[in-house]
Specification:
The complex is a heterodimer of chains A (263) and B (354). With 263 residues, chain A is an alpha/beta fold. In chain A, strand 7 and strand 8 form a beta hairpin. Chain A has two domains: 112 residues, Nucleotidyltransferase, domain 5 (2-Layer Sandwich), CATH 3.30.420.40; 147 residues, Nucleotidyltransferase, domain 5. In chain A, helix 2 packs across helix 8. Chain A is globular. Chain A is 41% helix and 19% strand. Chain B is α/β, with parallel strands linked by helices and 354 residues long. Chain B has three domains: 116 residues, Nucleotidyltransferase, domain 5 (2-Layer Sandwich); 145 residues, Nucleotidyltransferase, domain 5; 87 residues, Alpha-Beta Plaits. Chain B is 35% helix and 24% strand. Chain B has twelve helices and 14 strands. In chain B, the strands form three sheets. In chain B, strands 9-6-7-8-10-11-14 form a seven-stranded mixed sheet. A five-stranded mixed sheet of chain B has the order 3-2-1-4-5. Chain B has a two-stranded antiparallel ribbon with strand order 12-13. In chain B, strand 2 and strand 3 form a beta hairpin. The longest helix of chain B has 22 residues. The termini of chain B are far apart. The chains are: A alpha/beta (263), B alpha/beta (354).
């Protein structure tokens, strides 16, 4: 039986997770649009459809992310709280999570009981976000997946000195047109390093603590994770589906609210 | 005496020729990819306008991003000094200058002689620079020369609470799709840029009189917005884009007359962007060159410089673009170790904004 649903409305994608008493029974990811309410409803309906069900207003829904307060059929919870709950349910040993989204990056810290103790978030600058990566991939005429695969072949990645997405773009173009041109795999790895430089400096500001978990759409890039492991000097944990962690957290909070029980 | 100043900026190259203290020729052109070629073309056009030749020049000073690459220049001076000097020549009463260039924005304080006393520069984030306006003009499909008037025609400006050029562009596209008037989008962006410029100016001192220089000073909408924000009507020279080149020519004149002006301003290294404000202020007038900060910083941020025969600590050039990644901020550093660069500096010349 379905007990709760969680929705995470991101700037690029909207994610939903459907739970029964013990586990995830369905998930859906759709492209976000301007109409938040419709988006949230569509992703839930899609997730339910996969298991042959339709939306029932009696099921408790918790929404998080951009504009989640305006969704009429759900309650809203902060992204950091949902993220913390989701991360803790997958990795109880996690003390820190790095959420890399399309237009934002969020770092949270958790205590031994999985409670949120500190967080740092930025959504005002494209540097260090998924948009930056997409823009750079497009510039090199690659898909995000192609860029990710290429980055593993890098031998001498150049340092992209500009943090700003606009100025970094010119810098990348200059590497492409240089004689001899910088190899595309090296540029790809250089771009990843530049994004991670911003993210690692945010982590350092609140203090790195193991275990560290990576979540969000950007964490699906294996190349980014490989370089992040190198830069941090240890292996971070990545869930099977890093994109839905905040939606999972929202669903767990919703279930706790209805049953009063903890997982 | 015939002297020249050449300002190789990120987007345009400017040259000014002065003969016995009067401007006799000037030119503004796109920098393009080959800055050396551009420098020659600019100076030759400016000289041609004045019926002069390269050999007639007694002294030439280069400034701007490309200043070290000008082969015919006798020396180079930073664009910050040149802007202060140039503005001072037109308006000796000016103490606060906002220079809005193609890829950066600077707030400068100067004294009655045009020597720089304090300055701050943002060249790490495209938000609020000419590049940003170019991107938006492109999205609005309006020539760069018309966006100023466009903003002035607005009746209800649309709010933009961000300055990131990438995000602002997608927000502007979003408004366009909703059918919002172009003028209201432009006015909203000018408001956002104005707020950002004001915060830059507040990090130096806002003192009477106020001047705006650089290419954006030709944008009427932006100037009107800044007048409102700063609360002072800015002084505008006949061509504010030429100020840097004119300042360079004035320095060239000084050199011919054997004067050398040395200023030791406060220097604000760093930048601000959507994530926060990251400035390290080094007061070079207070710094005694004791080397303590160089030895203390665990991240190797500082080095000693020996400019004009004076030892003073500066931030290493290669660190400038990643200050916030190298330095965790003074409060974090203070918690982690006994000595910080601020605590070992006996003359209190160093301070952090974060």
């Amino acid at each position: 039986m379905i007990t709760a649903i969680g929705v995470d409305i991101g700037s690029l994608t909207t994610k939903s997770v459907v739970l029964n008493e013990t586990k995830i029974i369905s998930t859906a990811v759709i492209r976000s649009s301007d109409e938040t309410e419709l988006c949230a409803r569509t992703t839930i309906e899609q997730a339910l459809q996969q298991i042959g069900l339709s939306f029932n207003p009696d099921i408790k829904v918790i929404a998080t992310g951009l504009g989640s307060k305006s969704v009429t059929f759900s309650q809203s919870k902060s992204l950091t709280a949902c993220l913390a709950r989701g991360v803790n349910s997958i990795y109880p040993t996690a003390r820190m999570a790095i959420d890399m989204g399309a237009e934002s990056s969020t770092i949270i810290k958790l205590n031994e009981r999985g409670r949120l103790t500190d967080w740092l978030s930025q959504d005002k600058c494209a540097a260090g976000t998924g948009v930056f990566l997409e823009q750079m991939a497009k510039l090199m005429n690659l898909t995000s997946a192609e860029m990710d695969a290429l980055s593993f072949k890098a031998k001498f990645p150049p340092e992209i000195t500009n943090t700003c997405a606009v100025f970094a773009e010119s810098e990348v173009i200059s590497h492409v047109h240089r004689v001899p041109a910088t190899l595309r795999e090296d540029i790809a790895a250089g771009i990843y390093r530049s994004v991670l430089g911003r993210i690692i400096s945010m982590c350092k500001r609140i203090g790195i603590q193991r275990e560290v978990v990576a979540t969000g759409g950007v964490a699906m890039n294996k190349g980014i994770i490989a370089i992040l492991n190198q830069e941090l000097g240890f292996d971070i944990l990545v869930p099977d589906n890093p994109q839905i962690v905040a939606a999972l957290g929202a669903a767990i909070i919703a279930r706790e609210a209805t049953t009063g029980a903890k997982m | 005496m015939i002297v020249a100043g050449i300002d190789i900026g990120s987007r345009s190259a400017k040259a000014a020729i002065m003969k016995d203290g009067e401007i006799v020729g000037s030119v503004i052109r796109d920098t393009g990819a080959e800055s050396i070629k551009t420098a020659y073309q600019a100076i030759e056009t400016a000289l041609h306008n004045a019926n002069l030749e390269l050999d007639d020049l007694n002294y030439t000073i280069a400034t701007g991003y490309g200043r070290v690459l000008v082969p015919f220049a006798n020396d180079n001076v930073s664009e910050i000094s040149c802007h202060a000097r140039g503005v001072n020549w037109y308006f000796p009463s000016v103490r606060t200058i906002l220079d809005m260039g193609g890829q950066d924005c600077k707030a400068i304080n100067c004294d009655d002689k045009g020597a720089v006393t304090n300055f701050i520069m943002n060249d790490k984030c495209a938000g609020g620079t000419g590049r940003f306006l170019e991107m938006i003009a492109d999205v609005l499909n309006t020539p760069l020369t018309e966006i100023g008037d466009l903003a002035l025609a607005s009746k209800s400006a649309r709010p933009f609470n961000i300055v990131c050029a990438v995000f602002a562009k997608s927000d502007a596209l979003h408004y366009l799709r909703q059918g919002v008037q172009k003028s209201d989008i432009m006015a909203g962006l000018n408001e956002a840029i104005g707020t950002r410029c004001l915060s830059l100016l507040k990090r130096v001192t806002i003192e009477k009189d106020f001047a705006i220089t650089g290419g954006i000073a030709k944008n009427k909408g932006m100037v009107a917005k800044l007048t409102e924000k700063v609360g002072m009507t800015p002084m505008l020279s006949p061509d504010p884009q030429l100020i840097g080149a004119i300042g360079a020519a004035l320095f060239a004149m000084d050199r011919c007359q054997g004067n050398k002006v040395i200023s030791s301003p406060k220097v604000n290294y760093g930048y601000s962007d959507g994530t926060g404000v990251y400035y390290i202020t080094m007061d070079s007038a207070k710094c005694n060159g004791c080397n303590a900060c160089v030895e203390t910083c665990p991240n190797g941020l500082f080095s000693l410089s020996y400019e004009d025969g004076k030892k003073s600590a500066v931030i290493k050039k290669e660190m400038l673009k990643k200050i916030s990644q190298v330095c965790p901020g003074i409060s974090v550093c203070r918690n982690q170790r006994e000595n910080t660069c601020e605590s070992v500096c006996k003359s209190n010349a160093i301070s952090h904004s974060w």
